[in-house]
Amino acid sequence: MFKGLGNLAGMMKQFSEMQGRMQEMQDKLAKLKFEGAAGGGMVTVEANGQQKILGVTIDPTLMESGDKEMLEDLVTAATNAALDKAREGAAEEMAQITGGLNIPGLDEALSKFNPNS
C-alpha cells in the first residue's frame, strides 16, 4: 500500500534540489549584464539576464537634433538588441545547468519565472 511513497519522497527531494538550482540561476542571471546599441552606438541600453532594463544612455547630440521619432526608434532598437542578448545569455546559462539536455517547455517556464513579481 505504501510502496509509492518512497518514489514520491525521492521526487520531492529532486524537486526541492531543482528549485534551489533555479534560484541560484536566477541570482546569477540578475548579475549578468548585456548591452544593445543602435545608431552607431548613439543609444545604448543595458539589461540583465532576467531581461530587466538597467539603464539607457543617449548621446547628447541626439537630443539636440529634436528628431523625436528617430530617437524613439533608436531606443526601441537598442532595447530589443539588449533583450535579445539577455535571452541568449539566459539560454546559455540554462544549457550549462541542465547539461545541454533539451527539456520540453523548460525555456518557456523559465521565461515566466521571476522571483520579484
Q: Give me the strand/helix succession.
A: HEEEHHH
Secondary-structure-derived class = alpha+beta
Overall spatial form: rod-shaped
| Largest β sheet strand count, sense and barrel closure | 3 strands, antiparallel
Overall helicity = 55-70%
Number of strands: 3
CATH level-1 class? Alpha Beta
User: Strand order within the widest sheet?
Assistant: 1-2-3
Keywords:
single chain, 117 residues, alpha+beta, Ybab, Chain: A, 3-stranded antiparallel β-sheet, 3 strands, 62% helix, rod-shaped
Structure notes:
With 117 residues, this protein is of the alpha+beta class. The protein has a single domain, classed as Ybab, Chain: A (2-Layer Sandwich). 62% of the residues lie in helices and 15% in strands. It has 4 helices and 3 strands, in the order αβββααα. A 3-stranded antiparallel sheet has the order 1-2-3. A hairpin with a 4-residue loop joins strand 1 and strand 2. The mean pLDDT is 83.
